[in-house]
Design goal:
alpha/beta, 6-stranded mixed beta sheet, 15 helices
Length: about 550
C-alpha cells in the first residue's frame, strides 16, 4: 500500500506542477548515418553504392534500384537528410529552445573506406546543415560510436579528434563545455536563469566494441554483486582469460565518471534538474532480447555503475535521451524497493538502414517540456513513409503518434511508463482491427509551429480492448511496412523480450526476467499498482 501511495503522490505532484509550467519545445534527431556514396544508380544489395566503389554485399539475386530518398537496405542519402532538417524547420522551427543531436553521422561502412578526414568531413556537412537550419537556436550534439576513426575506438584521454570536433561545435558550446569536450567528448550546459542543466555524455567510452577502454563482452550473466554496486568481487575472466579488472585500461575513462558524479552532486545541492543525453544507452537492445547472445551495449560493471548513479541522483535527473538502436523504445529504472524512479527515451533513427533487428522508417521527434524544471510533458513522433516518398518523389513528414494520447498516459513519468510496460504482458483480446490514429491537428499554425500538442487528447486503455503493446510494436519500427505481411507479428516470447528490455536495464535482472516462464497474462492486480487504479488516475486526475 505504501508503494501505491508513493506512485499516486508522484503523479499528483507532476499534475499540479504542470499548472505553473512555462511551456517550451525541443527537437531530438539521431543516427543520421549520411552516406556520401549513396546513389540511385547504386546497388541496394551493396549499400546503394556504384560497383566501382567496391562495397561488398550479400550477393545473389537481381539488382534493385535505390530510391531517391533512401532504401531500407542502405544508409541516408543527402536528399533524405536535408528533408529531415527542412521538416524540423517547417513543422516547428522558430519557437524551440534547442535541438538534441545524439550522434552517428557516418554510414555503416568498413574502416577500409574511411579515414579521420572523411569522418570529420561528413560531420562538418551535418553541422553546417543544422547550423543553417537553426541559425537562432542552440544545437547540443553528442558523439556516436561511428563518429570516430577507427569506428568505436574512442580514446580514454585527450585526443586530436576531440579537439577538432570541439572546434567544429564551438559556436554552440561555451568555453567550459569546450574544455571538458577536449578532455573526453563530454560537457554540461547550464540553462541560465533556470534550475535546469543538460549533461552530454560520451557513452562510447563504455561501449562493448571499444577496445581502447574495454575488451569484454557487453552482455553476460552476472550473479555476484557484492562490494560497490557496479563491481564484481568474483573477478570474472574475459574472453581471452585475463581477469576483467586487470584488462580495464582505466577505471574511469577520460575521467567522465568522476566528472559526472561531481555535476550531479552539485545539481542536487543547488536543486537543479538534469537531462542526461548520450548516444549508446545502457541495458539490452529490445529487438535482440531473444537472441542467443542478447545485445547489451555496456560492459556489466559499467552498466551497473550507470544505474547506480541514476538511482542515487534520481531526484535531480528528470530525463534521459539516447539513440543508437535505430528503434523507438523506452526504459524504466527502479529503486531498491521496486518503485519506478526514472525513465529513458530511445529515439528512432533518420537512417532506414536494416539492423539485425530489422528496418525502420526515418523518424524525428519534438518534445514539449517545462522550461523551468525540464519536466517533459509530451512528445510528437514524426516519420517519413519511405516507400511513399520514393514513389511520389516527395518527402512528406507526418505525425506518427503523440505519446500521451497514443498510450493514454496521464503524464510523462516513470510511474506512468511503468504501468504502460506492465500492460505489454496482458492479453486484451483481438487487436487486428485496432488501428492507432494520429492526434488531432489544427489547420492553422502560429509562428510556424504545429499546435497539435495543445489539442485535448483522447483516452485509450487496455481496459477498453486496445492492445497497447501492439501500438508500441508498430511504433518500434516507425510504422515500417505497417499493414503488410512483411511487418510481422510478435509472439509471447517476443513480447517478453521487449518487456524485459524496458523494465530490467540491469543485465542480471534482465536475464532473470527472460528466464521467467513465458506467458501473456490477463489484466490483474500487479506488483506495484493495479491496472484499475491506474485507469482511475488516467480518467480522474485530468479533471482535478
Amino acid at each position: 500500500m505504501g508503494r501505491l501511495k508513493g506512485v499516486i503522490f508522484l503523479i499528483l505532484q507532476l499534475l499540479f506542477a504542470s499548472a505553473w509550467a512555462k511551456i517550451g519545445y525541443f527537437w531530438h534527431i539521431t543516427d543520421i548515418h549520411y552516406d556520401v556514396n549513396y546513389t540511385v544508380n547504386g546497388d541496394s544489395r551493396r549499400m546503394c553504392w556504384r560497383p566501382e566503389h567496391g562495397m561488398g554485399g550479400n550477393g545473389g539475386g537481381s539488382r534493385r534500384p535505390a530510391g531517391r530518398f533512401g532504401d531500407y537496405s542502405c544508409d541516408s542519402p543527402w536528399r533524405l537528410v536535408e528533408s529531415a532538417a527542412r521538416a524540423m524547420k517547417s513543422l516547428h522551427g522558430d519557437n524551440i529552445e534547442f535541438v538534441l543531436w545524439t550522434g552517428d553521422s557516418i554510414a555503416h561502412v568498413n574502416d577500409d573506406y574511411l579515414s579521420t578526414e572523411k569522418v570529420l568531413m561528413v560531420m562538418q556537412n551535418l553541422t553546417d546543415l543544422l547550423r543553417h537550419t537553426f541559425s537562432s537556436q542552440f544545437v547540443f550534439p553528442v558523439l556516436g560510436n561511428h563518429d570516430f576513426y577507427p569506428q568505436n575506438q574512442f580514446p580514454p584521454r585527450r585526443h586530436p579528434t576531440y579537439k577538432r570536433v570541439a572546434d567544429m561545435w564551438r559556436h554552440w558550446l561555451p568555453t567550459e563545455a569546450i574544455d571538458s569536450f577536449e578532455k573526453g567528448g563530454y560537457y554540461t550546459i547550464e540553462q541560465k536563469g533556470r534550475r535546469f542543466r543538460l549533461v552530454a555524455l560520451n557513452t562510447n567510452l563504455y561501449y562493448r566494441a571499444n577496445r581502447q577502454t574495454s575488451r569484454g563482452r557487453g552482455f553476460r550473466r552476472v550473479t555476484a554483486k557484492k562490494g560497490r554496486p557496479w563491481e564484481e568481487t568474483a573477478g570474472p575472466e574475459s574472453d581471452d582469460g585475463t581477469p576483467e579488472d586487470e584488462e580495464e585500461q582505466e577505471d574511469d575513462p577520460a575521467g567522465q565518471w568522476r566528472w559526472l558524479e561531481g555535476v550531479l552532486e552539485k545539481s542536487m545541492r543547488n536543486r537543479e534538474t538534469v537531462y542526461l543525453v548520450g548516444h549508446v544507452p545502457p541495458g539490452v537492445e529490445e529487438r535482440s532480447a531473444n537472441a542467443k547472445e542478447p545485445l547489451g551495449s555496456f560492459k556489466d560493471r559499467v552498466n551497473r555503475r550507470y544505474l547506480h548513479l541514476v538511482r542515487k541522483y534520481s531526484h535531480a535527473i528528470v530525463g534521459q535521451f539516447f539513440g543508437h538502436h535505430h528503434s523507438d523504445s523506452f526504459r524504466v529504472i527502479y529503486n531498491e524497493n521496486g518503485l519506478p524512479i526514472s525513465w529513458m527515451f530511445i529515439a528512432p533513427s533518420v537512417t532506414p538502414w536494416r539492423t539485425p533487428g530489422g528496418a525502420n522508417n526515418p523518424g524525428i521527434r519534438l518534445y514539449k517540456f517545462d522550461t523551468n524544471t525540464g519536466q517533459v510533458m509530451d512528445y510528437v513522433q514524426y516519420y517519413l513513409d519511405l516507400e511513399a516518398a520514393n514513389s511520389l518523389d516527395s518527402a512528406e513528414w507526418k505525425v506518427e503518434y503523440n505519446l500521451t494520447s497514443f498510450y493514454g498516459l496521464p503524464n510523462v513519468s516513470a510511474a506512468s511508463l511503468h504501468e504502460l510496460a506492465e500492460t505489454f504482458l496482458m492479453a486484451n483480446g483481438p487487436t487486428t482491427n485496432v488501428e492507432p490514429q494520429p492526434p488531432p491537428q489544427e489547420e492553422t499554425k502560429k509562428s510556424g509551429t504545429t499546435e497539435s500538442l495543445d489539442v485535448p487528447l483522447p483516452i485509450v486503455s487496455p481496459m477498453l480492448g486496445v492492445d497497447l503493446f501492439e501500438r508500441y510494436y508498430r511504433a518500434n519500427s516507425v510504422s515500417y511496412k505497417q499493414g503488410s505481411g512483411m511487418w510481422g507479428t510478435c509472439s509471447a516470447t517476443c513480447r517478453r523480450g521487449h518487456y524485459c528490455s524496458i523494465t530490467q536495464v540491469d543485465y542480471s535482472d534482465f536475464q532473470d526476467c527472460m528466464d521467467t516462464q513465458v506467458a501473456v497474462i490477463q489484466p490483474s492486480i500487479g506488483n506495484n499498482l493495479s491496472c484499475k487504479t491506474f485507469m482511475f488516475l488516467v480518467l480522474i486526475l485530468p479533471l482535478m
